[in-house]
Hints:
Blueprint: E1 3-5, E2 14-17, E3 20-24, E4 29-33, H1 36-48, E5 53-56, E6 62-67, H2 76-82, E7 87-92, E8 96-101
Antiparallel strand pairs: 1-4, 2-3, 3-4, 5-6, 6-8, 7-8
Amino acid sequence: MTEVKCVRCDGEGWVREDRECRACDGDGVTYEYDSPSHVRFVQDMQEAGIPVKHYNGRFYYVGPAVFTDEEGGLDKQDVYRATTVKCREDTLGKHDYIVYPR
């Protein structure tokens, strides 16, 4: 994974240029992924219109993830339905989740 300065990131979601799949951390930095499951996850979320962010989280996981807004409309089931990649989730507060590839 290579850290690069964000060029065309919207500051909230994904960036995909040519064959490179990236996710933005929200601070103007994008992260490139080369793991097949990470690339597929980013592509699936892009096709579904679901924003992806870079996540450095539990169990030493580092890669793309979706932060849900259960009360605002995007729930974890939307993410699971949008991809064929096997995913896991972490809770974020009482009602929201972070969903990411295994």
